[in-house]
Amino acid sequence: MKKDLLGHLISFASYVGIQNLLSWKLGVDEPFNVMAAASLTFGARGFMKPGSIRSRARNMALYSVKAGALGFPIGMIQMKLMESGIMVSPSISKSPSAENPHSVVKEDVEKN
C-alpha cells in the first residue's frame, strides 16, 4: 500500500515538474503542455511495469497515448479556469499589492 502510494506521489511530482518546466521554457501556458507532461510521466510509469522489453514498450505506448488523450481536455479546463480567474490564490488576492504579498505583514508589524 505504501509503495503504491509513493509511486503515485512520485508520478504526480514528476508530472507537475514537467508541466512547469514546459510552461517556463516555452513561455506559454497551454493544454499541450499538460498533454505532453501527462504523456511523458505515464509513459515512463508504463515502462517501469514488470515484464519483457516488448511488454514494457507496449505498456509505455499505451500509457502515453491514454495520458495524452486524457491530458488535453484537462489542460483545456485548466486554461479556461485560469482565464476566468477562478484559480487565483485567496491569500494573494487579499493583499494590497500583488507584487509584494507580504506588505500587509510589514504594515501590521510597523503599527505595533
State the gist of this model.
With 112 residues, this protein is mostly helical. The protein has helices at 2-26, 31-47, 53-84, 90-94, 103-111.
Describe the structure.
The protein is an all-alpha fold and 112 residues long. It has one domain (2-111). Helix content is 79%, strand content 0%. It contains five helices and no strands. The chain has helices at residues 2-26, 31-47, 53-84, 90-94, 103-111. Helix 2 (31-47) packs antiparallel against helix 3 (53-84). The longest helix is centred in the middle third of the chain and has 32 residues, at 53-84. The radius of gyration is 20 Å and the shape is elongated. Residues 90-95 and 102-109 have low confidence and may be disordered. Residues 90-100 have a biased composition (Polar residues).
Major β-sheet profile: none
Rounded mean pLDDT score: 77
What's the β-strand tally?
Answer: 0
Apparent shape? elongated
**How far apart are the termini?**
50 Å
| SSE order, one letter for each helix or strand | HHHHH
Uncertain runs with pLDDT below 50, 5 residues or more? 90-95, 102-109
What is the count of DSSP helices, taking H or I runs of 4+ residues? Answer: 5
**Helix content range:** over 70%
| Rg from alpha-carbon coordinates | 20 Å
Structural class: mainly alpha
Strand percentage, roughly?
under 5%
Question: In total, how many domains does the architecture comprise?
Answer: 1
